[in-house]
Amino acid sequence: MPKSIRKAAVIGSGVMGSGIAAHLANVGIETLLLDIIPASLLPEEEAANATLEDAKVRNRFASRAVEKLKKANPSPLYSPAFADRIQPGNVEDDLTKLGEVDWIIEVIVENLQAKQQLYSKIEQVWKPGTIVTSNTSGISIKEMAAHTSDEFKAHFLGTHFFNPPRYMKLLEVIPGEKTSPEISEFMKSFCEKTLGKGVVLAKDTPNFIANRIGTYGLLVTLKEMERSGLSVEEVDAVTGPAMGRPKSATFRTLDLVGLDTFVHVAQNVFDLLPDGSEKEVFTPPQILKQMAAKGWIGEKSGQGFFKKL
Ligand code: NAD
Question: What residue range is the signal peptide (predicted)?
Answer without folding.
Answer: none
